[in-house]
């Protein structure tokens, strides 16, 4: 059974329209390449204003891939219908039956609307909320419901869903230039992952290829330069061949060294200022999923 997945992006809205269009195209390209790597997924990406949609026959696998794609902030498996009040109400009642029947979870109907319609978002929420509430005794919680029955109305179409998955966020990989990253331990991987989320392509300098490849969880392409003992020659290659503009290190204030004396590039140390609990959370996102 095929499933439509609604994909939302965040920081791209802060850019001018030409830059936003460029970043959006890169995001779609990255999604395409990351999904293409999997042999057991058939999919189609559809670009819409303010949104992207993925139609796939393997939604579970697609969701896991999209969740870790930088540039996406959240995704939701949705049912698409025409913008017809009765049709939407019928489908919402089917969704409510699946999610509310036989339990005491709180709920609310949430509506977002784009376009011109004869009825407001609040009126839609009231109408469909009344329909659900007339059948189910579950408590209503408009601020923090256990189950949100969502409808996103976009002009002549509507998208109905209850589940939303948070994604990597940040910017699409490849929109902010290329950096060289020294990958020798897990903290180097975590630091590089954070820089990738700021839109950077990565040249991984490593003596542990399998460790460096863990970064592929969030990028469609990873250039790896291996070295035996001395990584400075690998850095020269990254600069000369790949035009690396900065150097990424997993150092923090506890293990800070004087890298500046050997490197004529800006040095990025994103783990400085991040507490240990946050680092452990990021590590889980990278290492548990691969």
Low-confidence parts, pLDDT < 50 over ≥5 residues? none
Span between termini? 26 Å
Per the CATH scheme, the topology name of the largest domain is: Rossmann fold
Q: What are the secondary-structure elements, in order, as H or E?
A: EHEEHEHEHEEEEHEHEHEEH
Helix residue percentage: 25-40%
The figure for the number of domains is 3
- The geometry reads as elongated
CATH class of the largest domain: Alpha Beta
CATH homology-level superfamily of the largest domain = HUPs
Structural class: alpha/beta
The CATH architecture of the largest domain can be given as: 3-Layer(aba) Sandwich
Return the average pLDDT rounded to an integer. Answer: 92
DSSP strand content = 25-35%
Radius of gyration: 23 Å
Q: Major sheet, described briefly?
A: 8 strands, mixed
Number of beta-strand segments: 13
Word description of this protein:
- With 290 residues, the protein is an alpha/beta fold.
- It is built from eight helices and 13 strands.
- Strands 1, 2, 3, 4, 5, 6, 7 and 8 form an eight-stranded mixed β-sheet that branches. A five-stranded parallel β-sheet has the order 11-10-9-12-13, with helices on both faces.
- Strand 6 and strand 7 form a beta hairpin.
- Helix 3 crosses helix 4 (121-133) and helix 5 (186-196) packs across helix 8.
- The longest helix is centred in the first third of the chain and has 20 residues, at 17-36.
- The model has no long low-confidence stretch (mean pLDDT 92).
